[in-house]
Amino acid sequence: MILARFLGPRVWILVAVILAAAILVPLANLWLPADHPLHVPSYLVPLFGKYVCYALLALALDLVWGYCGILSLGHGAFFALGGYAMGMYLMRQIGSRGVYGNPELPDFMVFLNWQELPWYWTGFDQFWFAALMVMLVPGLLAFVFGYFAFRSRVTGVYLSIITQAMTYALLLAFFRNDMGFGGNNGLTDFKDILGFSIQADATRASLFAASCIALALSVLLVGWITRSKLGKLMVAVRDAESRTRFIGWRPEHVKLFAFTVSAVMAGIAGALYVPQVGIINPGEFAPVNSIEVVVWAAVGGRGTLVGPVIGALLVNYGKTVFTGVWPEGWLFILGGLFVFVTLILPRGIVGTIDHGWDAIRATRRARNAEKGEASDSEAAGDPRAVANPAE
User: Fold this and answer.
1) β-sheet bridge partners, residue 193
2) d(CA 120, CA 133)
3) Which of 53, 175, 271, 301 is placed for a possible disulfide with 350 were both Cys, Cβ 3.0 to 4.6 Å?
4) Backbone phi and psi for residue 170, each to the nearest 5 degrees, phi listed first
């Protein structure tokens, strides 16, 4: 009960909806016959799973942007690094079933005449090691990057620029064939995950459920952080960093914590994304991907837990629809959407609704207060109220 009151009803409703989807979508796909009106086709399950991973990525960005004031344009890098860590594990599971039949080297290494597996691929034949790297690699990069950036008091647009420079540098690096990550083609042709066929309907449904569970746990984690004393300090750093520093706090430590946790969440989202889409390549590092994440959070409403999730789901559903109807015009639609939200709905969907409800409640309280004062005046025999009761 204490935890329920601490997080608030909205968080628990969101968690309940996510967990319900984790149960109902797999059941509708696996148990209901194909001719049933509620049946979910198999091709939609990984698509829905991709949406959920994007929602987790948007929530990760919202932790640093909405609550800490850090506009990161490089979160796509953390997402891609988590995806590559999972992709390396999946490549190691192929074994001798590849095109060239090499039990140790992935096909692209055989094609490029690699003689042995690079040292940084060691351990990725074990799932626990890959899961550890999914969190450790993005988290370590964010910690090192954030330590030097925040210690140097880089803020605002300058911080946004260097985060985008970071992801662009990684894009160029992963494009190189000699990096050992598949170059332009990336990692693909996955077979198994934890011994189960990655193409099986049950595996896809399980991956969708795992994505939903990860999103629900992340909502609880972010809700706990933002509603704690640390969360209040994050908001103070966002709204008045100089004043927060003046009264004795270290804003760089607060920013570093939020940035690192956010990067780990983004890495987990990338790791869940890769087996559902079946590929990871350097294109995931593209700066435009990180900008899209900002659009998702802005559309839904940054500084809220529900907003980024809703924004990611709505924008990506629109992307699916419009890229099928008008593929060359999607980027124009996305840009126009961002401009519209910035000028017309600066608080986003959820933020605008909350602001409207707050205004309505404030008006009601003012009216009730006026009625209460009028009643008190009449009860006390105020001569003004008796002389002119219509006022």
Assistant:
1) 196
2) 11
3) 301
4) -65, -35
Give, for all 391 residues of the chain, the pLDDT tens digit. 555 666 788 889 999 999 999 999 999 999 999 999 999 999 999 999 999 999 999 999 999 999 999 999 999 999 999 999 999 999 999 989 999 999 999 999 999 999 999 999 999 999 999 999 999 999 999 999 999 999 999 999 999 999 999 999 999 999 999 999 999 999 999 999 999 999 999 999 999 999 999 999 999 999 999 999 999 999 999 999 999 999 999 999 999 999 999 999 999 999 999 999 999 999 999 999 999 999 999 999 999 999 999 999 999 999 999 888 888 888 888 888 888 888 888 889 999 998 888 889 888 888 888 887 666 655 555 554 444 443 3
- The set of residues, in sequence order, having a beta carbon less than 8 Å from that of 298 and lying 6+ positions away, is 311, 338, 341, 342, 348
Q: Are the CB atoms for 184 and 281 separated by under 8 Å?
A: yes
Quickly tell me which residue has 């004393």 as its tokens: 229
* 223: its two tokens: 């809700």
CB 117 within 8 A of CB 104: yes
H helical segments located in 113-179: 127-151, 156-175
Q: Are 98 and 189 in contact (CB under 8 A)?
A: yes
Tell me how far apart the alpha carbons of residues 193 and 36 are, in angstroms, rounded to a whole number. Answer: 30
Cα 225 to Cα 219: distance, rounded to the nearest angstrom: 10
Sign of CA dihedral 100, 103, 107, 111: negative
Q: Residue 130 corresponds to which amino acid?
A: A
Q: Which of 62, 15, 20, 24 is nearest to 45 (CA)?
A: 24
Distance CA 259, CA 333 (A): 30
**Could you tell me the sign of the dihedral formed by the alpha carbons of 373, 375, 380, 381, in that order?**
positive
Residue 191, amino acid? K
Nearest CA to 275 out of 134, 70, 109 is that of: 134
